[in-house]
Amino acid sequence: MMxxxxxxxxxxxxLAIEQQVFGPTAWPPESYWGELARPDRYYVVADAGEVIGxxxxxxxxxxxxxxxxxxxxxxxxxxxxxxxxxxxxAVARERGCRRLQLEVRADNDAAIALYTKAGxxxxxxxxxxxxxxxxxxxxxxxx
Length: 143
Fold this sequence. Notes:
By secondary structure, the protein is an alpha+beta fold. The protein has helices at residues 11-22, 29-37, 80-94, 109-117; strands at residues 2-5, 41-47, 51-60, 63-71, 99-105, 121-126, 136-142.
């Protein structure tokens, strides 16, 4: 498995994982096309002969924001989410960022545990943040 930059030809596989992982709150294809076109964004895929995960970052030094991290359901539980997060942290540091934030569904215990183990702390709660009106936790880390 290698982590490499996301390309437009990865989007069919990325969108399939997006739908499996995020369901009704999944990003539409247009969102990814827009993200890939922006110079202040950085997206990668975990490639194991097929895309099994992906992650994205918004870089505005000295700050960065994790836009997304997702691992295909059949690849979850093996540490890939942490590898993707660690990769984003390393890139943010390399690009001169000193702080990293993200939003996570308040009911996503597995993701919250991942971020907490990686050194992220609670910044604030955003009520009714997602399109389905579920709450988000904003978590942050100094780099």
